[in-house]
Design a protein that fits this description.
CATH architecture of one domain: 3-Layer(aba) Sandwich
Bound molecules: pyridoxal-5'-phosphate
Strand content: 15-25%
CATH class of one domain: Alpha Beta
Oligomer: single chain
Helix content: 40-55%
Largest sheet: 6 strands, mixed
Structural class: alpha/beta
CATH topology of one domain: Rossmann fold
């Protein structure tokens, strides 16, 4: 299996190269050249546990990795999850289910991809004998998960940019209290989008990239997307056969990585009724699906900070399919978008997608309502998925983070404060972070001194 760039001006690559590159050399994102038909494996895969399923799935894509090694990478990646099922599915009632994705080491769904990516990087270093420099921008959870996935690994240094003061104090502690000397949390003055922009710019400096052995952990990395497809499949296989093609997955969305990973399964002949893109008040994607206009507004900090994003970098992958794989047209759209901050499609509808948006006023109300109705506590991101659900339709909600990661919203709304021993243990540790300017030059200089 090979992978192509959305922008159509880069060579096709194997899985390991696509993972190592992150962004393709033409500035595009990698996608599989073709899609396997998974429907023929359904019976065989029905009763597999999480790592077994993940192994079978990746065998189809990671054809350049030795099978024994792939198996070990997958097993290691899910060995530190605290729930025996890794990704348990709970029923709130007969029509409403929750897929809990927060039992990994940093208590958010990003662990699924980043534990795996960390192990892939380790294998790459072992094989090539070359060190790696990992860089990523985070609105909170990605950074913590990336750091956890790469903590103490030999031959790799990790530089994570985050907007100073704009992530939760506990998220900051998860990144800055590790004590590991290969980890550099960079607190920048600016927003997540500023950080992401600098990361993209640094990547376009090919000399620098080569010199420090640069790779990315952003949700643009192909391995992350595919690793996330696995839990959709795992949950889908757990549904009764007659529910499978009737269930809509509701996905709290920021960068569009998570929901895109689910949608990819429909390209692999898995029958899913639909996907609902659930945004917070930063609703660029909701507006797109409503009106066809993809346009930037200022990021407005919300109670669901990991979704405080305007430029949804994985959107380019969906766009590729929307434009029937026409890379030339895609380059035009992306160019115009990057010049004007907006692009108007006559209509942007893709079969199966719907969307919703939740204001900050609504989030605590939803948390309370869900608690009262189902005696279940959701985090502020997951809360966004509960808006306007038709009680007669079947929904499966992705619970993206553990409520204890975002305690303030509960104390402010007079609710019981959720807790987690993993997070409590961070409170007496020392914070180590590096304040750095937002420009690509300042960040590059810092890396140059520390890689
Ligand atoms: C990252 C994150 C999201 C958004 O996921 P995307 O892949 O960026 O759409 C939602 N909820 C939580 C808790 C997150 O950490």
């Amino acid at each position: 299996m090979k992978f192509v760039s959305t922008r159509g001006q880069a060579d096709k690559v194997h899985f390991s190269e696509a993972v190592a590159e992150g962004l393709a050399p033409d500035g595009g994102l990698y996608l599989p050249e073709e899609f396997p038909d998974l429907s023929k494996f359904i019976n065989e895969w029905q009763n597999l546990n999480y790592s077994e399923l993940s192994y079978e799935f990746f065998k189809l894509f990671a054809s350049d990795i030795d099978l024994g090694i792939l198996q070990k990478i997958v097993e290691d990646s899910y060995s530190e999850f605290s729930h025996p099922e890794i990704a348990p599915v709970l029923s709130l009632n007969s029509n409403l289910k929750v897929l809990e994705l927060f039992h990994g080491p940093t208590l958010a769904f990003k662990d699924f991809a980043l534990q795996f990516l960390g192990n892939l990087y380790e294998e790459q270093i072992r094989k090539s004998g070359k060190n790696l420099t990992i860089i990523g921008a985070t609105s909170g959870d990605t950074g913590a998960a990336a750091i956890s996935g790469l903590l103490g690994k030999k031959g790799v240094r990790v530089f994570i940019l985050y907007p100073n003061g704009k992530i939760s104090p506990l998220q900051e502690r998860q990144m800055t209290c590790t004590g590991a000397d290969n980890i550099f949390p960079l607190a920048i003055e600016g927003t997540f989008d500023d950080a992401q922009k600098s990361v993209k710019e640094i990547f376009s400096d090919l000399d620098f990239k080569l010199k420090v052995g640069l790779s990315a952990v952003n949700s643009i990395n192909l391995a992350r997307i595919l690793a996330q497809s696995v839990y959709y499949l795992f949950a889908w296989l757990k549904l009764d056969q007659k529910e499978r093609n009737q269930t809509i997955f509701v996905v709290p969305t920021g960068n569009f990585g998570n929901v895109f990973a689910g949608w990819l399964l429909s390209k692999m002949n898995i029958q899913i009724k639909g996907f609902r893109v659930a945004t917070n008040q930063n609703d660029v994607l909701h507006r797109l699906f409503q009106s066809g206009e993809y346009s930037l507004e200022k990021v407005s900090p919300s109670l669901a900070p990991s979704m405080d994003i305007q430029v949804a970098s994985n959107f380019e992958r969906l766009l590729y399919f929307f434009l029937d794989g026409n890379s030339e047209k895609l380059r035009d759209v992306m160019n115009e978008f990057s010049k004007k901050g907006k692009f108007c499609f006559e209509k942007f509808s893709i079969q199966g997608f719907s969307s919703s948006s939740v204001s900050d006023e609504e989030i605590p109300e939803i948390i309370k309502a869900v608690k009262n109705k189902y005696n279940y506590t959701v985090d502020p991101h997951t809360a966004c998925a509960f808006k306007n659900l038709d009680p007669s339709a079947k929904f499966l909600i992705l619970a993206t983070a553990h409520p204890a990661k975002f305690p303030d919203v509960y104390t402010q709304s007079g609710l019981e404060k959720p807790s987690s021993p993993v997070l409590d243990s961070l409170l007496d540790k020392k914070i180590i972070k590096y304040p750095v300017g937002t420009s690509a030059t300042e960040i590059r200089d810092f890396i140059e001194r520390n890689y």
